[in-house]
Amino acid sequence: MTEPRIPDITPLTRIMARLRDPDGGCPWDVEQNFTSIAPYTVEEAYEVADAIERGDLDGLKDELGDLLLQVVFHSQMAAETNIFDLQDVIDSICEKMTRRHPHVFGQFTANSPSAVVTNWENIKAAERSDRDDTSAIAGVAKALPALLRAEKIQKRAARTGFDWPEVSGAKAKIFEELEEVEAASSDAERSDEIGDLLFAVVNLARFYNVDAEGALKSANAKFERRFRSMEALAGDGFAQLSLDAKERYWQQAKGLERTGQAE
After folding, report:
1. Cα–Cα distance for residue pair 120/127, rounded to 1 Å
2. Which letter does DSSP use for residue 5 in this model?
């Protein structure tokens, strides 16, 4: 059996240190800071997810490299002002993973994935109790996609007992919010009520154990497939067709998709 290679991240850290060197480094890299780089970090995480969704393992290797570069980039910037360095980052995550897996590294017993998740959440709750903000919903990253963040907030709240006892309550809330959207008297009020409506829909998805973010992503992909099929069926001049004509092509595209004949 071939011995696994021991990863050597030193070349990458040296490259990043050189890029950040004010004397002969890259002007673009030198002028960056945590805030300016943060959007790139998020973007690289999404590109990792896209490669996985495509089943592109070669692409996944490249995208993971790009994401790793982001970790090294942030660590290099922190090291320059003696906040922390890459080794601190590695030590921190190793300590955290050991602490949160007592069923592997300690005496706790967890015989099922659900037991692992329950204990994981209990450990995280205990960690939150040591912080200034001890709220059950503290620590849900504000940079998360809105649907995903809503789901996480709702799950945290539900663990405290603040939840509908039955799915009927979640359904009724959607109709209530729809009425409030209709009753809104200004654009600002309507925007606020539509936000409440979206939050209520995420709650319903949670009751049905549906990933709201994933469900909307699938719906986006489905609409895109059908719209492209509709355009192909209609040919040139699609935009000039009447709405009734477009609807006929839309229904045709849906029918082709159901029978597996869509392009």
Report:
1. 11
2. P
200, 173 in Cβ contact below 8 A?
yes
pLDDT 10s digits, 46-73: 999 999 999 999 999 999 999 999 999 9
- Burial environment of residue 200 by CB neighbours within 10 A (0 to 12, 13 to 18, 19 or more): buried
Residue with tokens 């995208």: 63
Write the CB contacts of 22 (distance below 8 Å, at least 6 apart in sequence): 30
How far, in Å, are 35, 101, 217 from residue 117 at the CA level? 32, 10, 25
Which pTM value belongs to this model? 0.69
Alpha-helical regions (H) of the chain: 10-19, 27-30, 34-54, 57-80, 86-99, 102-105, 113-129, 146-159, 167-183, 187-207, 212-234, 243-258
Proportion of the chain above pLDDT 70, given as a percent: 98
65 to each of 4, 20, 38, 46, how far by Cα in Å? 19, 18, 16, 13
Q: What confidence tens digit (pLDDT) does each residue in 139-164 have?
A: 888 888 999 999 999 999 999 999 99
Distance, CA of 62 to CA of 202 (rounded, Å): 33
